[in-house]
Each structure stands twice: as structure tokens, then as C-alpha cells.
Amino acid sequence: MGGAALATLAACGNPVGNFNAERLDSRVDATRDYLRQNHPELDTLFQDAQGILYMPLVTEAGFLVGGSFGQGALRINDATVDYYSATRVSAGLQIGAQQYAHVLFFMTPQALADFRAGEGWAASADIRYATPNQGGSAGIQTTTMFSPVIAVVFGQAGLIAGASLAGVRYQRIIP
User: Fold this and answer.
1) How far apart are CA 120 and CA 88, in angstroms?
2) Considering only CA atoms, which of 29, 52, 26, 46 is closest in space to residue 132?
3) CA 55, CA 68: separation in Å to the nearest integer?
4) Cα–chain center distance at 65
5) Please, which residues have CB within 8 angstroms of residue 167's CB and are 6 or more apart in sequence?
6) Cα–Cα dist 28/23, whole Å
7) I need a labelling partner for 75 at 20 to 30 A (CA). Which of 25, 26, 61, 82 fits?
8) Any alpha helices (H) in the chain, and if so which ranges?
9) What's the rounded Cα separation, in Å, for the pair 51 and 79?
10) Burial per residue of 125-156, b for 16 or more beta-carbon CB atoms within 10 angstroms, e otherwise
11) What is the rounded (10 degree) CA torsion for 19, 24, 101, 127?
12) Which value, to the nearest 10 degrees, does the dihedral of the CA atoms of residues 89, 94, 97, 102 take?
């Protein structure tokens, strides 16, 4: 069963034409608007980022072997420049499924260039996670001073503290 699950996930990562670009851009717009309206403490990230990767819907599921898959768009100056898939495979005792969204803010030109130049950029422990408190943006400001890539992970209930994107692999796709 493990091999079948891996084969299924591999098929999901086809980089050519398996989605509608207009529909994906619409989802990206909704994700951006949700964050801007509900989390004004992220305004500094939106203003200072060199580029922003929006992954509006990632589905994660597992039964012993697990994985996740989602599609999104990289925007520079709020214009889509490329589309990407995000995949992750994991093993271990796991049963269940969840959906979430995430956004990567590339805060330096070098971080953005490294992401775009890669054949398959993998999220690592170097990513910092912005988890704004109800009370303000102090955590955001401290995080942004020192981090070339900042992630915000959120679901239906709002921002998800303690989430990790380690091991997620991003690959450019063609609509």
C-alpha cells in the first residue's frame, strides 16, 4: 500500500497543464484579501516583501504513509509571475486529513532569486514563521528583521501556530 500511495502523490505533481490558471488566480486573490482584511499586523510583510508565494489550498492526508499537495502562484508587485505546486511525503503513524493555506514572504532579493532559480526548492528549518498575537505585531516585526523567508500558515480557524513546512518541495508548473 505504501508504494501505491507514493505513486499517487507523484502523479499529482505533474508540472504541465492540470489546472485552470484563472481559477487559481482567483483563489490567490481571495487568500491575499483574507490575510489583508483579517490580519493587518501582516501589512509590514506585504509592503516589504520582494515576492510572495500564495498556496491557497493544501490538502494533507495520511494512512501510515502521508502526503500533501497544493498549487499556488508567485506574485511580484501583486502580479502573478509563475505558478507552483507544493508537495510533501511523510511516513510514520498517521491517520486523517486536513486542509490549510500558507504564504511565503520572500524578504530579500537573494531569497526570491534562489527560490525562482531552483529546480525544486525545498522548505527548510531556515524559514521563520509569523504567528501574530491578538494583541499586536511585535512578533512580526522581530521576525522580519532577521529572516529572508517568512511563512504564514493558516486554516479555517485562522493562523496556525506551531505549523511547519519543513520538507515541502515547491516546483514550477505550467498552466
Assistant:
1) 12
2) 46
3) 12
4) 21
5) 88, 90, 122, 123
6) 9
7) 61
8) 2-12, 21-38, 43-48, 109-117, 138-146
9) 10
10) eebbbbbbeeeebeebeebbeebbbbbbbbee
11) 90
12) -50
Residue 37 corresponds to which amino acid? Answer: Q
CA dist., res. 57 & res. 65, Å (int): 20
User: Which residue from 104, 46, 51, 56 is spatially nearest to 80, judged by alpha carbons?
Assistant: 51
Contact call for residues 152 and 101 (beta carbons, < 8 A)? no
